[in-house]
Specification:
It is a single chain. It is built from 40 helices and 30 strands. Strands 6, 7, 9, 13, 14, 15, 17 and 18 form an eight-stranded mixed beta sheet that branches. Helix 28 runs antiparallel to helix 29 and helix 36 packs across helix 37.
Length: about 1050
């Protein structure tokens, strides 16, 4: 041992076989002192010599070293200390590490580190040895050994060691903590600048053990200030993984000051670890998702460093920064800081990037900020934001970029009307030109045999649609410069689809209101050409199921169905364009939907017979085009003055009614129900306005601009990009009341109550519960909402499609509570102010629901004891029950003045072929001069209906008039003719009878057999009177007038009367 102290003597000892001798002594000696001296000598001989280390390992020394390290439980044992020194030396050798791991040294070092607590030197050697062994193993092996280390309770030791003043001990402890926390999540390699964006799995290695370690966050926060380069990076990564999917621990990090400690690491300095800023961003991204982190972030000057990091960074880093800025722009506390910063500059810098992902992130941030703050919008405008967004809208390479740029521009125009002219000039008009030229190019690509490279005429004169002589609006239109050969076919078509989506957003925002008529009509002409693409094949127009004659091509030759250009050798294989034709048509229909709101567009499109085009598209067998055409027709019927034009098109009502019977689509179902309610209701506008407040309901006038409300006020849907909201017409100030919402989707819907003066901001995402004037819950996120930045707002159970949410308000106790499918979820809000509160909803895009206020027509499913439905407020009484079915049959009273056109024959049910519908009626608000009508009408202006007279009298009436509100047949004249039972040239009284008074929620049925010319009526499932022979063989639709609220059933639900078949058959 003494001789080995001399470097010269060591060489002599090695040549004389000292290594073999010492290994033999270690293996055979029983005296502890001899073993210690042999280990000390061996350590000196092999230190810093890899070859000698390998030799002694080959001689089997490892098992004896393991025995020495495991034999004693006290750190005062010299043999353990010197053995640990030797084992530590061996653990540094690459050639030996795997063997040491296999022979159990990872467990041994872990135990030694734990039992030598207080001895920094021995703990440092143990931890360093562990780091050496683990660093050379693959991930799966490391995971296995980490579990083994956890089993000997080494985890609580590591944070303690990390706090030690010995820098090396702290470093090895941090490394091992990092291994425990991160391994199994994904394999990391230091120096990869984009690794932090890799998706992490849910696996970990006893990561949960660190959550319970006392003072872990204090220790890690302190280590973020370490001057050793790798320590802050390892700590940042460890914190990132500890907080992953653990909101509670993230909040603990914020409270422990991690945000303030991390922010200085955003700055890159000479010689600093380049990975630190990346992992700082990754950690801050998680923490800044919590509003509580915003104040310390701003106070620590984090915004300036974040903005500086956004310049000259990689795309992935910039995207992280953009995401963080989205969080920062979501709270009121951030407003002053953002408004006084240079955040607008970095966002505009993102928008001008060559990377599409960054363009989208920049445009999305601009949308956030212009909705967030008027001051920010002014800054963005001054710095060229309108021009930048316009460029993205017109030239962007991805649909998301087009859409978000259009949304940002439309939001700016709404927030600041003075910008509208600028936006029209820089965005609307250029986009109009681009879309028009893109449409010409698309048609050229699909029909190249009809085009030259010069401008020329396109003529589809011989192509016919039902009810028209030619394809509407397609004859003889001039084309401009067409296809550019330098642009790829699919790229050109794909870009046009993106631009159409942006165009729809601009139309919806009203920016086309000021566009010149000539410019608008040229655009609409191009849109019509795109809309008819699915109707046209490579040589002409497809033959449709409703057409018997063959279509003819533009050149005049007869074509067969679905020819798709396959015959033409010099054409592209157009079957590959079929999908684009459909997509272009679908997006075009969405644009036309928005354009029809403009009176100028209405007039032009009506002249061009847009609705026959839509009906033709509706009859195709391509489901996406078919459904969009149906939605477009149905939505158009809700626009004043368009309903009759739609009903005048053959198959429009029948096709949509049949679709209503078979479709299970929530979006299509909503618009079809809206169409049927609108097309059947012929009440005057004066009656609608006078009767509106006799029922609790939602109306479009009480909603934000783009929310869709059914005419009867029970169906609500949002298909706009904004967060739309609506309030009911009835409020509560005293008592205990309830209403219910049936969910048609499982996305974000906020259900609650709002003050009468509550204001919503759809573009900014401010809905019910998002301000101090409203309350709401959201089962999609399981949150309750009240105010700008609610805290601790977890509430209730997750809800899903088909669930029924009951909203309760107890003004006596000042509480709001909720039920889910009848199960009480608890009180959501207390201390509610004693003012008027109105039922209110907010819906994210693509969400729909049905609302029940508790009238007899819409009874509540779940009403707790002690509560009344909201309907009780307008009814002035407690809940209304559905009346019992009355079974008595009344006789017809035939008056001598009535023409003899009535069939008295009673036919057996088996021979009846009546197309039948039922109407559940709401009669509140009727006056003595108001006569409800229930029956049918045709396209020629013939109405046959049951008139409900006072005192239980009923009359069957036939009227000839294109408009019942016109002066030739005023409402008063019609009423007098019915009451006096006097027929005129255009008003005929067919029958008069007496019976029980029609009650609230009674069900009146009407059946027709046009071939037999017969009509009948039922009450609550029972036939009333005889079958009348009063019809001609025409197409009829249900007709309703002067009924304030009704529920229409064409056969989707079971009829009360068993003799009818669905009306649409």
């Amino acid at each position: 041992m003494r001789v080995s102290l001399s470097p010269v003597a060591r060489s002599i000892l090695i040549r004389r076989g000292a290594l073999e001798i010492l290994c033999a002594v270690i293996a055979s000696a029983t005296d502890v002192a001899t073993q210690r001296d042999a280990v000390m000598s061996l350590l000196r001989l092999v230190q810093n010599n890899e070859h000698r280390k390998v030799l002694i390992v080959k001689s089997g020394v490892l098992k004896h070293l393991r025995r020495f390290l495991s034999a004693s439980a006290t750190h005062s044992n010299d043999l353990m200390y010197w053995t640990l020194l030797l084992a530590h030396q061996l653990s540094l050798s690459d050639d030996i590490q795997a063997q040491m791991a296999d022979e159990g040294f990872i467990r041994v070092f872990s135990v030694v580190a734990r039992v030598t607590f207080g001895n920094a030197s021995m703990q440092k050697l143990s931890l360093h040895s562990l780091v050496g062994l683990l660093s050379k193993l693959n991930t799966s092996e490391i995971v296995s050994y980490l579990h083994e280390m956890a089993d000997v309770n080494v985890v609580p030791l590591l944070p303690t060691c990390a706090r030690n003043d010995d820098v090396e001990l702290a470093s090895w402890a941090v490394f091992l903590m990092h291994e425990f926390i991160t391994k199994g999540l994904f394999n990391l390699h230091c120096g990869e600048t984009e690794e932090f964006l890799t998706v992490m799995s849910d696996e970990d290695v006893r990561k949960d053990l660190f959550y319970s370690v006392k003072g872990i966050l204090t220790t890690l926060a302190h280590l973020l200030s370490s001057e050793i380069d790798c320590i802050p990076r390892l700590v940042l990564r460890s914190l990132k993984y500890l907080g992953m999917k653990n909101a509670t621990f993230q909040m603990d990090m914020i409270a422990a000051g991690i945000v303030e400690k991390a922010i200085p690491l955003l700055k890159i300095t000479t010689g600093s670890d380049p990975d630190c800023p990346l992992w700082t961003l990754a950690l801050l991204h998680d923490l800044l998702a919590h509003d509580e982190a915003h104040t310390p972030f701003f106070e620590s000057k984090g915004l300036g460093l974040l903005i500086a990091a956004g310049y000259n960074s990689s795309v992935h880093i910039a995207l992280y920064i953009a995401d963080i800025m989205v969080y920062l722009s979501s709270t009121a506390v951030s407003r002053a800081h953002l408004e006084t910063s240079e955040v607008a500059d970095i966002i505009l810098h993102f928008c001008t990037s060559d990377e599409v992902e960054l363009q989208y992130a920049g445009a999305a941030l601009l949308l956030n900020l212009v909705a967030f703050s008027e001051e920010m919008m002014q800054q963005i405008t001054k710095k060229g934001g309108v021009e930048t967004l316009s460029a993205l809208l017109i030239h962007g390479e991805r649909d998301t970029v087009h859409i978000v740029a259009a949304k940002a521009l439309s939001t700016m125009a709404r927030k600041d009307p003075s910008l509208q002219n600028s936006i029209v000039a820089t965005a609307v008009i250029p986009l109009t030109t681009v879309v028009r030229e893109g449409a010409e190019q698309a048609i050229h690509l699909m029909f190249p045999q009809y085009f030259s490279r010069r401008s020329e005429e396109i003529n589809f004169n011989d192509a016919q649609l039902p009810g028209t002589s030619t394809l509407p609006g397609s004859a003889g239109r001039k084309r401009g410069t067409l296809y550019n050969a330098d642009i790829g076919h699919y790229e050109a078509l794909e870009k046009l689809t993106y631009q159409l989506v942006g165009l729809a957003v601009l139309f919806e925002s009203g920016l086309y209101d000021t566009v010149e008529q000539h410019t608008l009509e040229r655009l609409l002409t191009a849109l019509l050409d795109l809309a008819i693409l699915p109707l046209v094949d490579g040589k002409g127009v497809e033959t449709h199921p409703f057409q018997s004659a063959q279509m003819r091509s533009p050149g005049g030759s007869t074509v067969r169905k679905n020819s798709l250009f396959r015959d033409t050798a010099d054409n592209i294989e157009l079957s590959s364009f079929a999908e684009f034709r459909d997509i272009l048509a679908i997006n075009t229909l969405k644009v036309i939907d928005k354009a029809l709101v403009l009176e100028a567009a209405q007039q032009f499109l009506m002249r061009e017979e847009i609705f026959p085009v839509m009906v033709s598209l509706m009859r195709l067998d391509r489901i996406n085009v078919k459904e969009q055409a149906m939605i477009s027709i149905a939505a158009s019927a809700l626009i004043p003055n368009l309903k009759n034009a739609i009903l005048d098109v053959p198959y429009s009502f029948t096709g949509l009614a049949k679709a209503m019977m078979s479709s299970n689509s929530t979006i299509l179902g909503h618009y079809l129900k809206c169409f049927l309610e609108a097309s059947c209701d012929c009440s005057s506008q004066a009656f609608v306005l006078s009767s509106e407040d006799h029922y609790a309901r939602f109306t479009a006038e009480r909603g934000t601009p783009y929310i869709s409300v059914s005419p009867q006020g029970s169906l609500i849907r949002n298909d706009s990009w904004t967060f739309e909201s609506i309030k009911a017409n009835v409020g509560v100030r005293h008592g205990r009341y309830a209403y219910e919402v049936e969910l048609f989707n499982d996305g974000i819907v906020q259900i609650g109550w709002a003050k009468g003066w509550c204001v919503f901001d759809p573009e900014a995402g401010t809905g019910v519960g998002d301000n101090d004037d409203s309350y709401a819950i959201d089962g999609h996120r399981r949150k309750r909402w009240h105010g700008l930045s609610p805290k601790d707002n977890h509430f209730g159970e997750a809800w899903s499609e088909g669930d029924i949410v009951t909203a309760l308000i107890d003004m006596d106790a000042g509480e709001m509570a909720y039920l889910l499918n009848g199960e009480h979820m608890g009180v959501a809000f207390e201390g509610v102010e004693g003012v008027w509160w109105y039922p209110a909803l907010s819906l994210a895009s693509g969400q729909g629901c049905r609302v029940y206020f508790g009238h007899a027509l819409d009874p509540l499913r779940y009403l707790p004891e002690g509560y009344q439905p909201i309907a009780g407020i307008v009814e002035g009484c407690p809940r209304t029950a559905v009346p019992d079915v009355r079974c008595e049959v009344e006789k017809w009273r035939i008056d001598d003045a009535i023409p003899n056109t009535i069939s008295e024959t009673r036919l057996p049910h088996s021979t009846w072929h009546f197309n039948y519908f039922e109407l559940q009626v709401g009669l509140r608000g009727l006056t003595q001069t108001t006569i409800p009508h229930i029956g049918v009408s045709d396209r020629e202006g013939n109405y046959i209906f049951l008139a409900v007279l006072p005192h239980g009298q009923y009359s069957v009436v036939s009227v000839q008039s294109r408009d019942l509100d016109e002066e030739l047949i005023s409402a008063d004249q019609l009423r007098k003719a019915i009451l006096n039972v006097t027929s005129t040239e255009r008003v005929r009284i067919l029958a008069l009878w007496e019976g029980p008074h029609l009650q609230e929620a009674d069900i009146v049925g009407c059946g027709i057999d046009p071939r037999a010319g017969e009509i009948l009526f039922t009450f609550n499932g029972h036939l009333r009177g005889s079958v009348l022979k009063a019809l001609e063989e025409r197409l009829y639709v249900p007709y309703v007038r002067n009924i304030a609220k009704f529920g229409l059933n064409l056969g989707k639900e079971q009829f009360m009367w068993s003799g009818g078949r669905p009306f649409a058959q």
